[in-house]
Amino acid sequence: MSNSELTTDTGYQSLLGKISEVYATGQARAAQAVNVHITETYWRIGRDIVEFEQGGNVRADYGKALLTKLSRDLTLRHGKGFSRSNVVRIRQFYLAYPKGATLSHLLSWSHIVELLKIDNPLERGFYEQQAIREKWAVRELKRQKETSLFLRLAAGKDKDAILQLAAQGQIIAQPADLLRDPYVFEFLKIPEPHQVSETDLETRLCDHLQPFLLELGKGFTFVGRQYRITLNNTHYRVDLVFYHRILRCFVLIDLKINDLKHHDIGQMNMYLGYFATEENTEGDNPPIGIILTRNKDELLVEYATYQMNSPLFVQKYQLYLPDREELRRELELTLQLADDSARDENP
Q1: How many CA atoms does the CB half-sphere of 65 hold within 13 Å?
Q2: Do 196 and 315 reside in the same domain of the chain?
């Protein structure tokens, strides 16, 4: 059989595909095995360093120089992998996870280095669980840290909910679990105070669909933009429509660049009614509506949604990174107030 005949032969193509699949799987398993070996090795090295220090083997006069000397000597013996910064992280790895390198099978060393840069154990625990749960690449982990995802999700929660968030990550069990305060679209790189139209904002979000889906969170699949619905020969269009695989429902998003009006809420409620009746199929849950606006009048939203049963939310978005220190202060204040209240109740 000639080369040209082999190329078009279905049996050969099947063989080629099977070999490629086996090879790709083998490569992935080999990479995972290397990662497990590296992280477990680094954890043991970190343990040896800490035990050496704690055993009284480090005199005060050269204690601070220990890591520098180790970095130099280990590099001479073994080559790359022992820069001073990496030796510092290796030691820190053991101190942060003294019970064992439990992350080695789940996250790469590059993930762990990003986690070790987080001083607060609550924040570190959240990003650790979330990176595992949502299978974040290192780049995605960095982005979520930069946008203060943990602090945004913790905003408005009580102490118990914050501790649960830190220990388990974000668990999507009900519509409110989807929300972030605020949503951050810094990836669009629109400078402040530059103004964009709603159409332009929608276009930019669709052009940057991957980071947009990352910001929305796990479970979102894109359905369409300017999704047309027709009532009594009148056409309406929903800005963005998604389907959430975990909650098994449509999620409708409308974008507002100006102040929110009460009729915007009424319009979204109409969209929800239409989707519940006309678009839902067996097994679908009621659709969720999210109106994203630059400015949110809490009182207007309260009155406009009075006795409204639909899962409809009005959330703020911004085009720049949030003030991390301000969010951190709010978190610390919430925890402090909770601790003070507990002490008052149990003097």
Answers
A1: 6
A2: yes
Closest to 308 in 3D by CA, of 282, 284, 288: 288
> How many domains in the chain?
3
Domain that holds residue 43: 3-114
If asked whether residues 162 and 214 sit together in one domain, one would say no
Both 53 and 12 in a single domain? yes
Query: One digit per residue, pLDDT tens: the chain, 347 residues?
Result: 555 655 566 777 787 788 788 888 888 777 777 788 888 899 999 999 988 888 766 565 566 688 899 999 999 998 888 999 999 999 999 999 888 756 667 888 999 999 999 999 999 999 999 999 898 999 999 999 999 999 999 988 999 999 999 999 999 999 999 999 899 999 999 887 778 899 999 999 999 999 999 999 999 999 999 999 999 999 999 999 999 999 999 999 999 998 999 999 999 999 999 999 999 999 999 999 999 999 899 999 999 999 999 999 999 999 999 999 999 999 999 999 888 887 777 76
Q: Tell me how many degrees the CA angle 286-289-294 measures, rounded to the nearest 5.
A: 170
Handedness of CA 152, 155, 159, 160 (dihedral sign): negative
Residue 260's identity, in one-letter code, is L
202 and 314 inside one domain: yes
Q: Taking the CA of residue 48 as centre, how many other CA atoms within 13 Å lie in the half-sphere pointing to its CB?
A: 10
Are both 189 and 171 inside the same structural domain? no
Q: What CATH code is carried by the domain that includes residue 268?
A: 3.40.1350.10
Nearest-angstrom CA–CA distance, 108 and 103: 8
